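Structure (tokenized):
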């Protein structure tokens, strides 16, 4: 409240030099400046990126076929990352935005899901096809299907 009083006193002090019309105009300027500052504070919030400018993603469901089951998710994830880095390199792997989803790994079915940029789906399929062995045992990684929505990929391919 002290701040407002000093503001008003400041206006009155300035307006003592001018007439009544000028004093009213100065009050309007101060109030509009206050509104303007309030709007500027609100405008500093980060605006969300438009949907047309966002990176599109796809969800690729894969299945590992081998004689012995792979028990831990971290082994599967590191296997995919190593293959991706060796085939695509660091820059292309970063652009692809490959993300092996830990909560979608099904140990019994040996199936999982990977999130990837829509432009790199074919390259990711190649990366998966290049995985040949794990701990001296021969394995085959098969891509089951691709979807643009995680729920649909889950229902259509993982729930089989």
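Design, position by position:
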């Amino acid at each position: 409240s002290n701040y407002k009083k000093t503001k008003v006193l400041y206006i009155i002090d300035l307006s003592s030099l001018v007439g009544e019309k000028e004093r009213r105009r100065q009050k309007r300027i101060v109030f509009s400046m206050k509104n303007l500052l309030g709007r500027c504070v609100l405008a500093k919030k980060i605006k969300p990126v438009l949907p047309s400018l966002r990176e599109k993603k796809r969800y690729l469901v894969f299945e590992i076929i081998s004689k012995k089951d792979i028990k831990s998710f971290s082994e599967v994830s590191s296997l995919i990352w190593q293959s991706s880095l060796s085939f695509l390199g660091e820059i292309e792997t970063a652009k692809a935005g490959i993300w092996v989803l830990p909560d979608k790994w099904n140990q019994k079915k040996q199936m999982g899901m990977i999130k990837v940029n829509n432009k790199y789906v074919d390259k990711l399929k190649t990366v998966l096809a290049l995985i040949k062995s794990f701990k001296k045992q021969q394995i085959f990684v098969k891509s089951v299907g691709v979807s643009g929505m995680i729920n649909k990929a889950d229902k259509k391919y993982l729930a089989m």
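Reviewer-requested clarification: Residues 2-43 form one domain. The chain has two domains: 2-43, 57-158.
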